[in-house]
Design brief:
Number of helices: 6
Number of domains: 1
Radius of gyration: 16 Å
Mean pLDDT: 95
CATH class: Alpha Beta
Largest sheet: 7 strands, mixed
Distance between the termini: 51 Å
Strand content: 15-25%
CATH superfamily: Glycerol-3-phosphate (1)-acyltransferase
Low-confidence stretches: none
Number of strands: 7
Shape: globular
CATH topology: Glycerol-3-phosphate (1)-acyltransferase
């Protein structure tokens, strides 16, 4: 049985504050580059899973740019030890169990509501930024297949860089995935192209 998302106002406000103050404290600066207009469309947000901060990066991106009801898919064993996250939008998936289908269906149902956003990290686990290309586990295409025809799919890449500073700066770039095919292979290939483009843009001339 999956753990479904909840949104208790006190905890939603707490994580909104924590994502802002935490990122500002641990990074020298955080820049979100996003021009997506999400009005009237549910959003599936796909990001790179490279750090403990990933969920908070997506949370802050949502607060600043996307303005949706935040939901994020988490491994069940991790969510069970951090159930406070469930009170601000986290729901579970348990790999290798029959409940995987239920979790994917639940995510699809959420994406029939124009006010909702679902965040997924198809890598499945935290992976070094240096390991490329990014490999997607199965499941994302099933979420998309069951979601609203009005679904907006957004990719984001978050990249830290220190250069000569003591604390890293963080750049988060967002694009819309607009392909009609939306196959697992095309999702992965397009995401990796975007990742390489982000890295190239971030390298100093």
């Amino acid at each position: 049985m999956i753990i479904k998302a909840r949104h208790i106002p006190l905890f939603v406000r707490f994580f909104s504050l924590y994502s802002r103050t935490g990122l500002n404290r641990y990074f020298q600066n955080v820049e979100f580059i996003c021009s997506a207009d999400t009005t009237g469309r549910p959003v599936l947000l796909i990001g790179n899973h490279f750090s403990w901060w990933d969920g908070f990066i997506a949370y802050r991106l949502n607060d600043l740019r996307l303005h949706k009801v935040y939901h994020v898919m988490m491994l069940q064993d991790q969510l069970e030890t951090r159930l406070i996250l469930n009170k601000a939008g986290a729901f579970s998936i348990k790999r290798g169990s029959r409940s995987v289908v239920e979790s994917l269906h639940y995510a699809s149902v959420l994406l029939h509501d124009d006010e909702n956003m679902v965040v997924v990290y198809p890598q499945g686990t935290i992976t070094s930024l240096h390991r490329r290309p990014v490999r997607f586990e199965k499941g994302t295409e099933r979420i998309i297949a069951g979601a609203s025809d009005n679904l907006m799919i957004l990719f984001y890449v978050a990249l830290p860089d220190w250069f000569s500073a003591k604390k890293a700066g963080l750049t988060v770039r967002v694009i819309e995935y607009t392909a009609k095919e939306r196959s697992a292979t095309d999702l992965e290939e397009t995401y990796n192209m975007f990742l390489e483009e982000c890295i190239a843009r971030q390298m100093p001339s």
